[in-house]
Structure of Glutamine synthetase family protein:
Amino acid sequence: MTTAATQSVLDEHYERNGDQAAIETVRARIAEAGVEYVYYQVVTLTGRVVGKVAPATELVRNVENGLRAHPGVMADLQMDAAGVLLAASPERGECVVMPDLDSFAVLPWDPRTGFFFCRMYEPAGAPEGAGGRPMPLDARGSFARAHAAFTARTGLELRSGCEPEATWTVPGHSAEHVPGTPHPMYHVGQLEQLRPVYQKVMSYGQELGFEMIESNCEGPGQLELNWMFDRADRTADRLVLHRLICRQVARELGASVTFMPKPAENQLGNGCHHNISLWEGDRNVLLDPGTPGLHLSTTGRHALGGILSHSAAAAAVMAPTVNSYKRYVATGQFAPQEINWGMDNKTCAVRLPASGRLEVKSPDAMVNPYLSHAAILASIEDGLKNSIDPGPARGSTDGPVTDRFGTLPLALDEALDLFAADHVLIQGIGPELTDLFLRMKRQEWARFCGAVTDWERMMYGAEGC
């Protein structure tokens, strides 16, 4: 038995999961759906879902005591150039994996299977007094704690909605656009060719509690399927689930889907714009009551100033792959390059499409949503604390637009250097999580630099000299 003075964060989670009323609620859902198996899943630093499966009959034991997993899974068991695991030594002890009871849901494509999202903790008795502490490499748990701490300090809650794009290849349908032909953006004929895809994805999303809203075909084979905004941690979970849904639908239809930021030179890039707002209770503080027209409150301007100030460094998180920067380089496709803002201007890095929300356009479809939201949250708090002025909007008559926020980096290595020097983002995401992210991504860049590509063979092969 622990006292209030000695109770660890893990002890608090044990206590929450011992709530018999909460357990009975889950058991009732399991019985109603006929669930026989349960996934206990965590999200890695690269946004992959990993976990364990157990019979539903083991529910009480697993939710009250947790499961165990090696922390190396948080880095996808990646190794450095010397063959050493990046996240933890093989000799390192396992962590406790604790399900969040309120995250339980049933797979719509197989009601015999349910799942929990989980958080990871150091076990009791861990060395150096770490027992019972949150495992710092758990991006999902880290963001939940960061958001709660932000709310405690400011009284504000971050809400968000994402615009995830994906490129689909279905039998008999090409994802390529032929130059000189009409662009099929929003074309209903394109939607019709992808009808089996969007219907299944939207249906599964609704069964998992997504409030699906307007969606569209942005280009050949590209779908953007949206759901209603919510508290940022819920939105992040739903984005992870959306990717799982898309992969399941692809398997069912014999299709393929990619979230690659730039699948090919003749295809549109896949973005994942984050639409954000700040709430104090039921009041959206980005709005100024009584102000007509498209506008942003003083609080909103300072939040925007913080986002712009850290956009260059945050690109490492928002655009986390080598391929991500090919989306930025491809001009004329609404991906940002300059770090600026505008009212309803799709060329800007951040735009105000409607009073009450800001659209951050740098994230792409391979973003880890817990890291991206943590970076946005840290940037916003810096903007609020230091009253950072975003300057006039692009195209505004309020004054000359300056380029004081610069441009987004155009390669992953440049982005990583900027990220490593931004102490606001490092503290907001967490020093240990940042360190692992940087080591993983610097190694990714090094592997890319050592790879020989088709472009190089074309340029410098037998016919290139």
In short: The first helix runs from residue 9 to 17. The first strand starts at residue 37 and ends at 43.
